[in-house]
Write a structure and sequence with these properties.
By secondary structure, the protein is α/β, with parallel strands linked by helices. Helices cover 43% and strands 13% of the residues. The protein has helices at 3-17, 22-28, 49-58, 79-85, 101-105, 116-126, 150-156, 165-170, 189-193, 196-201, 205-216, 230-237, 241-265, 289-294, 303-309, 316-327, 333-341, 360-371, 405-413, and strands at residues 33-38, 89-97, 130-134, 160-162, 177-180, 223-228, 270-273, 277-278, 282-283, 373-374, 380-381, 385-390, 400-402. β4 (160-162), α8 and β5 form a beta-alpha-beta unit.
């Protein structure tokens, strides 16, 4: 998340509701310690998500693509394993696959972030307490290449498996919980909001965070929980403003859940940050900047929804109608033809995000004229990022830190000696 994302989410919430984000309200009320954080990896000033998470998780910088495995195959014990050894409960909730880079970086060692089938099994072997997000592709025997039923393995070890929002709500707080609510990532927040089936079947990040806190708050030795709005990153890769803003707002609701608990508990440190910048979006100067930016409030769907609804067989009129339905504004026939031209012989690009074959960038550039939002790329950036801490231990934070510093700060704040 680039700082522009935080900025725009606060502007969006302020202009829509009259109240800004919970994150920036903590700044305004001077209730947090605040710093900038350097996010580099071992082999680049621009990190990927696995190396970024590993810097926190393992306390060392690793090469992009690795999870707590050093350039010379060093194995760095992940932070959540350290806390488990210290008697604490540990878990992760995310809007992307639970086996994805950021949650995995707190939990496992792997030479490759792509080994998600193995990571799904590692979580069970390592004995975490709650893991929730997407990722059915890595647990289901119907989809895994090796046909293993990883769900059955979890159940055999006493885990509850929740596949829907209702099952998550009903799950007992006395047993480990595996929540997997989508084949890949969870739907973007605005798409979920405007689809009855997704709304009823898929939990929000705030709901997952609350469930995880309820599951672990009774631990006599305390707990650690990672709450990740991973799809903010995916939306930035796609230059998809509705995806980014609405998912950042959903993350802000999860921030409130964490702060509300910490205020009552008095013994909990809440760390609010991001592991890297991405795409550097921002509101661009212009006479209609206010009016244009406010038009995003009328959006009902992400560009991902729009571009996946468009088919190679769609007509120009249908393309215009689909975009109008998602954005509340009609594009020209010429622009509609341009969008449709990308679907001629389309083969989606292999890789993590698949955003460069489908016309995400082209659509974002067209939207800039009516929403005043610009982007510098579709990739991560070397930005220093915001870091805020609330609660006991926040006094340890210095104004400028390296990402690896956070690993040791968390151990120190929790009074856990780094003897592993």
């Amino acid at each position: 998340m680039s700082t522009g994302t935080l900025n725009m989410a606060d502007l969006y919430l302020n202009r829509k509701t009259g109240k800004g984000s919970n994150w920036l309200q903590l700044y305004k009320d001077q209730r947090v310690a605040r710093a900038l954080m350097d996010t580099a990896s071992a082999n680049s000033i621009v990190t990927d998500s696995s190396a970024a998470s590993s810097s926190w998780g393992g306390g060392f910088r690793v090469n992009n693509g690795a999870l707590n495995v050093g350039p010379n195959k060093e194995q760095y014990l992940p932070l959540w394993q350290k806390f488990k050894k210290a008697g604490k409960m540990a878990g992760c909730v995310t809007t992307v696959p639970i086996t994805h880079a950021t949650p995995a970086g707190f939990c496992v060692n792997s030479a490759s972030r792509s080994a998600q089938d193995d990571i799904a099994e590692d979580y069970l072997r390592l004995g975490f307490d709650i893991m929730m997000g997407g990722g059915n592709n890595y647990f289901s025997p119907d989809i895994r290449k090796d046909k293993k039923d990883v769900y059955a393995a979890y159940k055999a070890k006493g885990w509850q498996v929740a596949r829907t929002r209702e099952e998550m709500i009903k799950a007992s707080d006395d047993k480990p919980i595996l929540g997997v609510f989508a084949d890949d990532a969870l739907p973007f927040s605005i798409d979920r909001k405007n689809d009855k089936d997704l709304t009823s079947g898929t939990p929000t990040l705030a709901e997952m965070a609350q469930k995880a806190i309820n599951r672990m708050k009774g631990s006599k030795n305390g707990f650690v929980l990672q709450i990740e709005a991973g799809k903010v990153d995916w939306g930035a890769h796609a230059n998809d403003i509705a995806a980014v803003l609405y998912d950042q707002a959903a993350f802000d609701e999860a921030v409130k859940v964490a702060i509300d608990f910490a205020e009552k508990d008095k013994e909990t440190l809440v760390i609010i940050t991001t592991d890297h910048g991405n795409a550097n979006p921002g509101v661009i100067y212009g006479k209609k900047a206010n009016e244009n930016f406010d038009s995003i409030q009328k959006y009902t769907h992400t560009n991902e929804w729009i571009l996946n609804t468009i088919k190679p067989t769609s007509t120009v009129a249908q393309v215009r109608e689909i975009i109008d339905g998602g954005n509340g504004s009609t594009i020209s026939e010429e622009n509609a033809k341009n969008i449709l031209s990308y679907y001629d012989g389309l083969h989606k690009e292999d890789g993590l995000y698949n955003y460069k074959k489908v016309p995400f960038k082209a659509l974002a550039e067209m939207q800039q004229k009516t929403n005043s939002v610009g982007w510098i790329s579709m990739d991560h950036s070397a930005d220093y990022v915001e870091l805020a801490m609330f609660g006991p231990g926040s006094e340890l934070l210095k104004p400028f830190v390296k990402n690896t510093d956070l690993h040791y700060l968390m151990l120190q704040a929790a009074e856990v000696e780094n003897k592993f």
